[in-house]
Amino acid sequence: MRSLIELSNLESDVSAKFFEPNDSGRNELIPFFKKVLQDGGELIKEAHFKGCGGLELSRIRADFIDTVLRSVWSFGCSSLNQKDSEIRCSLLAIGGFGRGELSPNSDIDLLFVSPNVDPKVHEFTQKVLYILWDLGLDIGHSVRKISDCIEIAKKDYVSQTSMLESRLISGNSSVYSSFLKKMQMFLKKGYKANHLVQRLKERNERYRNWDPSVYVQEPNIKESAGGLRDFHEIVWIVKAFGYNSLEDICKNRSEGIETLEKAKESYDFLLRIRSQLHIQSNTKNDALSFSSQIEAANSLGYTDSEVTFAGEFLMQDYYRSARTLNSFCKEIFEDLETEVKQRRFFAKKITREKIEYGLSWVDRKSLSVDKSSNEIQDRPATLMFFFEAMYKYSSIFNSDIRDLIRSSIHLVDDDFRSSLEVRESFFRILNGKTGVARVLHEMHELGFLSAYIPEFESLNCFVQYDHYHRYTADEHTLLTLNALDVLAYTKDENLNTLAHIYRELDRTHLLRFSLLLHDIGKGKGDRHAHKSASLLPEIILRMGLPSDEGRVLQFLVLHHMEMSMTSQRRDLQDPSLIRQFSEKMETKEQLQMLYLLSYADISSVAPSTWNDWHGTLLYDLYRKTLDIMESGEESDEEKHEMEILRQVKSRAGVRYVDLKEDEIERHLQLMPKRYIEQTNIGTILSHIELRNKMILRKELFSIQVIHKRSENISILTLICFDRIGLFGLISSVLTKYEINVLDARIYTRSDGLVVDTFQVVSKGGGVVEDPDKWVSFKDDFYEVLNGEIELPDLMSQNKRHLKLKKQLHFYIPTIVEFDLESSNIATVLEVITPDRHGLLAMISNFISESGLSILSAKVATQGPRAVDSFYLTDLKGLKVDDKTLLNSLSEELFSMLDLKIVEEDRVSFS
Questions:
Q1: pLDDT digit string (tens) for 802-811?
Q2: What is the side-by-side strand order in the sheet with 167-171?
């Protein structure tokens, strides 16, 4: 490679260059080395873009910086008229630089070490450091006595680690030998078990600070699980255990050297990505943000396909490499833990109990194998039995069993996949109530799961740029299984109903199997639920599932999004909707399974996605559907209305003694029927009372705010006489105070009185407690209603009006659709678009200007997306079914909202 040849020539020029040991020489040295560093940096960049490997490039830069440091060191010696050996000091590279690895903008960590930091040594180190600073090098340095180094290593594990990877660059070799000797003596004094415990503690703390999953969408390439730091840690701990290299510890395992080579390839790939991040940001940057991924993918030669972005392809390769690295490092830690236990001073004797399938149960914690690969070949089904034993004994696999499974994957062929005893073993695992996700994670990590269910391979490290899912598709799928595991022992009161249903469920294996398969159609374009379901007949036939189980499986996969979407986007107070939904469910078991599946699916999107509001909506839909399915019929509407009237009058006589019976009757007669169906007794009475207060005080409106802390929401009720665009006016004022609407209901009496109820939350979620905010809301709404301030003037007071709530790194399309089937009394408008401040007000004002009325609205978010649904009628209260009108409105609204069209948003996608 031409650039590397030129870099080698540049290093030769540096080594041969002589500078006079005086101020004149120093003045010549500084610009010379600045030019050298600039030219060398450009050559290193060129080598990277020509395809130089990550590890090779980091070593090339380390060698290049070594050359510069040696030259500066030599100048420092000559300027003091001293030889290297005469200065009792050594210049050491430590940390990553000590390993001989230096990415394009990584820190250059140096240690000046001496038996005694006397004035002469101090003067010399200062002279060298000032030159390095003047050159603009990013230096991390310390000047220490050897004895101080040992004391610091005793107290500070990070410093100990850094010095463990020291390397002599220049200076007195005998001083360095003395330093090494004392460091090695110190390490030998420390128990290996202590080193191991400290490393595991450090790793676990790092995972907590970042994320324990390898598959997060914006990982830190150094610190995240499966990142470079995982590999560094095993290099350090292996040295502490007295091994010269990783090869020494791996050679004793049947597949050890092969897994080491794969880990090194993965490490090299991660270093190459790191080099790209450093180069494109021109700084030390290890964060693979969305914007960084897109730029890095293009620079590294990835291209978009019809359904996949280049950045998604890059991240798929990243996750595969990170998983390989993480798995390898985990196994090394486990091997070292076993070695510690086998030492003579370890008090407890290791126990080995022989169990089924040729396995040993080691210390009742892990499984080890006594079978050979030849025995496995005679009965391949044993591979599945190993995993069943892992579940049955709540244990982990030792490295020997992992190696055996990896080397036997080729035995998972068509006969294996269609084997009845294999299927039954697999389903016994899936039928477990807890601890199942851990076993499936192990299957996936070893490549066994995709071998047994080839359709699952499409999810392997599959990345989807949607600003919503935090994890890759395979990790999300496995997390859904973990969500079910949690239900087996949870004490969370909000999960009581789900937990009870789950614990009583008979065919748990079908629920878990549907979760494993629910997303296998992803990566094949839109409507992934249908694409996933279309792959099931072949799986069902291959595995020989009974027809009833196959039918349930297909139902759950095909409808896996339906319950969550219905609960979040449709009016659950609409009886016709509940009727339609109950007909789709067919059986109580399928309803319960879909309820559990929806919970698991939502809660596994990201750590904070599942909340009390989602739980309330899902439970409401589940309960209402179950009521219809169990009763088999709906109550007589007229009898129901009479019963409601009777109950309202009865309650009024106890708590609302001032309300007259004819007043109550008139209120209910003037209200639409859906008001009676959707409103509880106490709320009806409070509405009448609010109306009376408004009339008595001759006010334009009456307002009430109630906080439901159990649901983490506030309820705003507003009563006034109707006017065009009222919903939009209310939404606009709420927007000004950053009060977010989750649900809205608008009931209009035939005499023009309107009862509007909003379920709202604060900007950060939760109840809107600030009483001053509600006072200000009331004042502003009065001014708007009274015509004292125009709506555009009100919105101009909000500087963030129509600005995006969350940064976008790639285009999110706007979807505008009308649904004529979900409701008998209204047309449903569904809008999915990037969320903006004031979006609800903007859409509702558009609806009003279009001559339509809003009966109710459901407002939800998915990451940076707003998912809003509106139940609409014409001004006469009739359902809108003019498709020409609806298509025209759809196109107009789309043009208002889509970010590729709306120029004033000026959103740039990285």
A1: 788 777 777 8
A2: 139-145, 108-114, 90-93, 167-171
